[in-house]
Design brief:
Two copies of one chain form a homodimer. Chain A is an alpha+beta fold. In chain A, 54% of the residues lie in helices and 13% in strands. Chain A binds a DNA duplex through residues 35, 37, 54-56, 59, 64-75, 86, 88-91.
DNA sequence: TGCTGATATCCATGGGCGTCAATATTGACG
DNA sequence: CGTCAATATTGACGCCCATGGATATCAGCA
């Protein structure tokens, strides 16, 4: 995708009222982040060495069953916040910077409003 | 070229794994944004003239019952994304720029990761 | 081929959430 | 006071979702 598309699609909330369709797509991503476990997963993956973490790294970081972690990873992947790649027995997850940047830009508050 | 690191509380995801407590607080806000109606409400309020909108403006923008809008406004207010002020018969809502900025900064992706 | 470890899928369960009708509250105005 | 308009609260219903146990898939290895 080119930068114009990114810029155009990521204008802050203030610029224009979100149409239903776009709001639905963005809400899916925010809903995915709206779980403390998933938020920590994204944080761990983003901050992990090499920008990626395998599932074993994550299951070790939570007091949750392995299927639960796998479920959360699927949710994050389905909304485009994570990608996965299998290498041998292990599956490595990494964040999708463009997707995070899109959400970040959306919430950026213009100076004229931040008063 | 490291920018002035915003706030200690708002360092991007990459800097440090979120502890449970902080993740819980942030997840509450993201969960509130994880509904298309609420996302559009925030958008409408932020973009409305004067930076504020009364409930009547919102009920007119959705094909939803008035209690439903009122419920969504309460959710957004409870997580600190909106404030309300009564003036006469009308109640005006406005966004909390600091709260939005906190979330935006959290999702901002450092250059070394966005490669 | 069979075995073992890593990860994903399936299924059930309990709790949380979006919606709305009915009702309550609040303020303005006569 | 009484009435009306704007907004909030309550209660109920149906559905989605986080979680974990059982099981399946997949890759490496003997």
């Amino acid at each position: 995708m080119d930068e114009l598309t990114v810029l155009d699609c990521c204008a802050p909330l203030v610029r224009q009222p979100l149409d239903e369709e776009r709001a639905a797509g963005l809400a899916r991503a925010f809903k995915a982040l709206g779980d403390p476990v998933r938020l920590r997963i994204v944080s761990i993956v983003a901050g992990h060495e090499g920008g990626e973490a395998c599932v074993c790294d994550l299951t070790a970081s939570f007091d949750l069953a392995q299927p639960t972690i796998s479920h959360h990873l699927k949710v994050l992947k389905d909304v485009g916040l994570l990608t996965s790649e299998r290498r041998g027995s292990w599956v490595y997850y990494r964040i999708v910077p463009d997707r995070l940047a899109e959400l970040s830009a959306l919430l950026a508050v213009p100076a004229e409003v931040a008063r």
